[in-house]
Amino acid sequence: MLWTIIVILVGGIIIGALGKLLAPGHRDNIPFWLTIVCGIVGMIVGSLLYYAIFGLSGPAQRVMDANPDGPYGWDNTTKGIDWWRHIWQVVVACFAVMAASFITGRDTTRR
Question: Which one of 44, 78, 90, 105 has the largest count of C-beta atoms within 10 Å of its C-beta?
Answer without folding.
Answer: 90
